[in-house]
Amino acid sequence: MKNHKINIIFFDKIKTNKELLFKIIKRLIEEKNIKQKVSVSLVLVNSKTIKELNKIFRKKNKVTSVLSFPLLARQKFITGSKEMSLGDIIINIENLKKEKEFKKKLKENITHSFLHLLKFSHKDMEKEEKKLIEALSDI
Fold first, then answer.
1. How confident is the model at residue 79, as a pLDDT?
2. Quick one: which H or E segment has residue 129?
3. Nearest alpha carbon to residue 135 among 111, 114, 113
4. Cα dist. 55→51, 92, 104, 105 in Å?
5. What is the pairing mode between strands 84-92 and 66-70?
6. For residues 123 and 7, is the Cβ–Cβ distance under 8 A?
7. Which of 36, 137, 33, 49 has the alpha carbon at shortest distance from 90?
8. pTM of the model
9. How far out from the chain centre does Cα 34 lie?
10. Residue 46 has pLDDT above 90, yes or no
11. CA proximity to 91, closest of 71, 113, 72
12. Between vectors from CA 8 to CA 70 and to CA 6, what angle results, nearest 5°?
């Protein structure tokens, strides 16, 4: 596997298992068979921060579980370039920590957002999302 760049940022001092987060992202990259070296940022925030971001970027003044900021639409692919930035995944870790099945919900939210980084829309991602979540079952 290529040495992908995975940035994990704990923005609001809410910590979780960093190794788990790396494993999830690495497995998703492997499962999508991405050949080129990529970078992905995973930012963990609280409910207040994600509400602010949702209001600014989506004009929705409410808390959400996850936001995706894909860069593929704005990035021109150059054959042979060294690294491709997929974008940013913003996770409301505060909300997820309240969930009974935290790890399962974490994997589902990261997977969903990761597919948005790859330009999947809600209408065409359901089958792929289930497949990827199944591939994460041993993590």
1. 45
2. helix 122-135
3. 111
4. 6, 14, 27, 23
5. antiparallel
6. no
7. 49
8. 0.88
9. 15
10. yes
11. 113
12. 65
Query: How does pLDDT run across 68-110, given as a tens digit for each residue?
Result: 999 864 454 444 556 788 999 999 999 998 888 999 999 999 9
Rounded Cα distance, 1 and 43, in Å: 23
What is the full DSSP assignment across 79-115? TT-S-EEEEEEEEEHHHHTTSTTHHHHHHHHHHHHHH
3 bridge partner residues: none
Within 13 Å of residue 48, how many CA atoms lie on the same side as its CB?
Answer: 4
* Residue 107 exposed, middle or buried by CB count within 10 Å (0-12, 13-18, 19+): buried
Contact 115, 132 (CB under 8 A): yes
CA distance linking residue 129 with residue 120, whole number of Å: 10
